[in-house]
Amino acid sequence: MIRVYHDDEHLAGYFIGQIPSANRLTTDIWDMRRRAPTAETKVFKQSVRNYLSLYAHLLPQFRFYELDISVWIPVYFKGGAVITRDVSNFIKISEDSVCQALMLDDKLNLDVSIHKRNLKKDEQAHWVFVLKGRKAESYHDECNRSKALSFKEQVHNQGVGQAVPEISSRGGKKGKSRKSR
Fold first, then answer.
1. Residue 154 pLDDT more than 70?
2. How far is residue 71's CA from residue 53's CA, in Å, rounded to a whole number?
3. Is residue 34 a contact partner of residue 79, using CB atoms and an 8 Å limit?
4. Strand, helix or coil at 92?
5. Contact 12, 161 (CB under 8 A)
6. Contact 94, 23 (CB under 8 A)
7. What is the sign of the dihedral through the CA atoms of 131, 133, 139 and 145?
8. What pLDDT was estimated at residue 68?
9. Could you give the CA distance from residue 25 to residue 40 in angstroms, rounded to a whole number?
10. Is the CB of residue 166 less than 8 Å from the CB of residue 2?
11. 2-159 has which fold?
């Protein structure tokens, strides 16, 4: 399941499921002396591509972008001990998948950040991305940064931005149909 939101500067998505860890992205093929993507990697990238490619036309056109990713996974055991998961292992596959689906060169992402959030009881693992357009390479305007973080919170809390129709698991649109361009 996915929800996609957008405004003049942002494109954001909410995905149910976990991002495969970088430790499980490839496997060795000894007879060919190379590494190949695992089945889990292929399925993840294809599902992100299937959903997001329908919304590539909504991507705001900017010279540069910043990508902010939040991953909701179990962080604590029942006894309160911390589960050791390296969240940086999720950056490569999530950035590649989002950018490929939106037909965006990931070299244009000047800032990529990822955040690990504790999964609450009775919640499914999920992740949220926000792709924000930037007009210039230098960027330290806290006002705009807080706007992007606020937008991410809106997406996670069932979105206040303009929601586009959900996509069913079979690839068809739900809700109102959109005119083709």
1. no
2. 21
3. no
4. helix
5. yes
6. no
7. negative
8. 92
9. 8
10. yes
11. 60s Ribosomal Protein L30; Chain: A; (3.30.1330)
